[in-house]
Amino acid sequence: MRKLADASSRLYNEVNYERQQSFQQKGVDFKGTWEKYYDKYKKVLGVNAQAVLQKNNEAWSSFLSLRNRDGLPSFADHVSPPGYWKEDRIPLEEVVRFTVEPRKGEQ
Description:
This protein is an all-alpha fold. The chain is built from 4 helices and no strands. Helix 1 runs antiparallel to helix 2, helix 1 runs parallel beside helix 3 (47-67) and helix 2 (30-45) runs antiparallel to helix 3. The radius of gyration is 16 Å and the shape is elongated.
């Protein structure tokens, strides 16, 4: 389980770093980074690679929508891009996805 968490964290941080770099220069390339990192991590993480990338997509989409919004709420005077997953705070329960398929005849 720890190896899965470490690989999930690495994936999230790598895609997040690349998206931050491209955001500063030209904007976030969701499709290109998704394909690149999904292909890189699918053998290690399986369906969990998709779940991690989806979490990062949600974080970036939220940031971009808040950033482009007219007039932030008074408590939010500044919006920052998504941060990195720290080693001691990896949200396993949010990312790890187990897919169980019924055997033939069991449904």
